[in-house]
Design a protein that fits this description.
The structure holds 2 protein chains of 2 kinds.
Chain A lengths: L2 H10 L3 H6 L4 H15 L20 H16 L10 H28 L5 H4 L6 H34 L2 H32 L2 H29 L20 H12 L5 H35 L14 H4 L7 H9 L3 H16 L1 H22 L4 H11 L1 H11 L1 H10 L10 H5 L5 H32 L4 H21 L17 H23 L3 H23 L11
Helix pairs in contact in A: 1-7, 3-7, 4-7, 4-22, 5-7, 5-8, 5-9, 5-10, 5-15, 5-22, 7-8, 7-11, 8-10, 8-11, 9-15, 10-11, 13-14, 14-20, 15-17, 15-18, 17-22, 18-20, 18-21, 20-21, 20-23, 21-23
Chain B lengths: L4 E10 L2 E11 L4 E5 L6 H8 L7 E6 L2 E2 L4 H7 E4 L11 H11 L4 H14 L15 H13 L5 E5 L7 H16 L3 E5 L3 H7 L2 E6 L2 E6 L1 H8 L4 H9 L4 H9 L15
Parallel strand pairs in B: 3-8, 3-9, 6-7, 7-8
Antiparallel strand pairs in B: 1-2, 1-4, 4-5, 9-10
Helix pairs in contact in B: 3-4
The chains are: A mainly alpha, B alpha/beta.
Chain lengths: 568, 267
Amino acid sequence: MNKISRAFYTLVLLPRRLYESWGINTGQLALILRYKLIMDDRRPNTFQQTRGRVKKEGISNAMLGTMLMALVMGMINLIAFVLGKDDITHFSFFFLAFLFLLASVLITDFTSVLIDVKDNMILLPKPVNDRTILMAKLLHILVHLIRVILPMSLPAIIYNGMATGWWAALSLFSLVLLASLFAIFLINAVYLLVLKIMSAEKFKSFIAWFQVGFVIFIYGGYQVFLRLTDRSEFQQFSIAENPFVRIFPPYWFGRAWTTLNGSANTGGWFFLVLSVITSLGSIWVVISILAPAFNQKLSMINSSGAEPQALSTVNYYKQSTKRKPLPELLVGLLTRDAITRAGFLFTWRWTNRNRGFRMRVYPTIGYLVIWVILMFLPRTGDQAEGSAKMMGDSFGFIFLLYMSSFIIISAIQQIAIADEYKASWVFYSYPVGKPGSIIQGSFLSMVCKFFLPLAFLLFVGGIVWKGWEILPNLLLGLSNQLVICCTILLLGRKSLPASRPPVMKDKSGNFLRGMMMMIITGSTGLMHFLVYKFIAVVLLLTVLSILANWLLIKKIGEISWAEIKDMP
Amino acid sequence: MEPIIRIQSLFKSYGSKQVLNNISLDIFPGQVIGYIGPNGAGKSTTVKILCGLLPDFEGSVTVKGISLREDPLSVKRIIGYVPELAELYEVLTAAEFLELVAGLYEIPPDTAQTRIHRMLNALGLEANMHQRMDTFSKGMRQKVLLISGLIHNPDILILDEPLSGLDANSVIIIKELISKLAAEGKTIFYCSHMMDVVEKVSDRIVLINNGVIVADGSFASLQQSQGQGSLENIFAQLTASKSLHDAAASLVSAFGNETATTPDINE
């Protein structure tokens, strides 16, 4: 266990008495948590190569990168302190942003940890009760999350400490911890409640869609909330003027801070108590009421990789026998040799049926849906005028065009990660000259599945919205999306599909890395926007972009064994 | 004598598929039960229910008079389970993994350490105890699993294909171990496809097919009722629906009159 983990491990186990009063066996809890954290620090040997040497357990660059990104997000959150005219508004916005980021990291990166069924065969036959196992899982997530929570809240804590004093900083820090508990346990409570009322079988398909839905809900609420506030009045309004905000938790935490810092009244104390009770209360509800059903249900969910399909014919084959199924039709058009074809079909089928992949990729679809809704959301007052003058609506279209590439980028980045990574021996043991052929097939498969449908929608939508004159810009945008994807694939760590184990300590970074990827894509989009009106330039760039795609896809096909890092 | 395991009218289904269909079985202390059946017959499901891994079954299961449904933790303390698929936390060393398991059984650390050393030593793994298990061979993993099932000195040992991946010497050790444990009064529930081993180590054989017990008795009594022959023959007689020789012949003839016997990957 590294030093950071050890410190947090000690910290989260401090309320032993409390845990015991909830029926948790703290000895077993500490043991399970300790070994889980030890395991997180050790990367599995992909093919049992290095002989039993225990790796140096230090703080990895990936972890530092994640912490740095969280720090940047925390700095961006400081914007909350210029919104509105009073502290209650500042802190409500701060907690809104904080809870939004935390909930997104939890849902996109940690659902798979909670719903992990790898423990079933090891922990469940042992005399450990359900509450202990569930609490161990939750504390495991918490220890990893503290690395994100601390840097994310640090800028606000320092800012308030300098502006108001040490008590302001300390009370904010305590409320941040409570808000984190609130987010972690509330999200788990939702999962557990659903698991309690649904069959395990239904839950598997539910969870992926819940992630998409919840992301839409949180992110949409966040964006709509900000947009509906008129920018010209940003510094004069007070959130407290609207009675409806009282039902939102960020307001409770905001009000709790102001109560602790000089503006205490009966209402204030009510919200302070409410913040504490909901945070600790949600833990109690999760452990006491929902935990017992949890492991039973988990044991019914089969091992985390592929879902059992043995008893029913996969939909793919149920289709009419006269017509070729879609993937086979596409593979015939796009691939020429048997290996690329195999890579294409494998990736298509595996991504259709693998729960882990869906859980990692589907939420990004949620973000895109929100962007689309926001594009068409009517703006109010000066903001609308200002933005129209500043950018024109061509910017919005280009923005949408480039941001939609986020889905395929995320799919391409996740295609190598699999719980059942060991099954990739098939690629290594068969007579495959260049692994690039498999990767190319896999890439084309992802393009067909995640890029083409979206490109079609953008194409039709673009023509309907802007008319035929948008065509050159549309083609350039779509082609650039593919160039970005190819480049990311070629510059990143090259792997065969489903061949790398998921690594726990990098998990908290997925969402934040995604945000960074958006910034890169966004800046490419911005450059496109600058040449938007010069049709001749756009046409020339389109030709170059298409040529680049042709070369890059060819290059993917040429990836050699020497470039595959996970080779046995 | 009171049975140590009593299974009464056990039913279990996955969706519309009925996996166990009215299984009733009394197992007595010191018995070595060979639990056999074709793939998909319901063997592993029975084992998972006995180990408390599948709580939603119909019927009743009591172990040493304790209802599995009402007090699964107490039952789990009495049972040692060696699963078929070597699920292990591979990034841990063998010693670390066994310390974890011992801790979950709440064995005092000193006692656990002594047992871990002795048991690893007995199975020839003392030199590997501080190596990560992702470097282990299948047989080495199987040995670690076996120790993890025995470490708390259980009254009942459930073995699901325990010989899988073991070399001939290790097989001899395990067979010897089974008889020694039985002699000490431990009850062994032994699931396997290796008929010759089941025939030798079990004093009672239970054959299950399509979720129903189709034969139950000693090897000698099975021979009496089903005709003289090996357990393999009795097994085939009771469970195979079509000729096994035909299946092999069809497999070989699957190549047919193809012009190329190996796929041309560069076409």
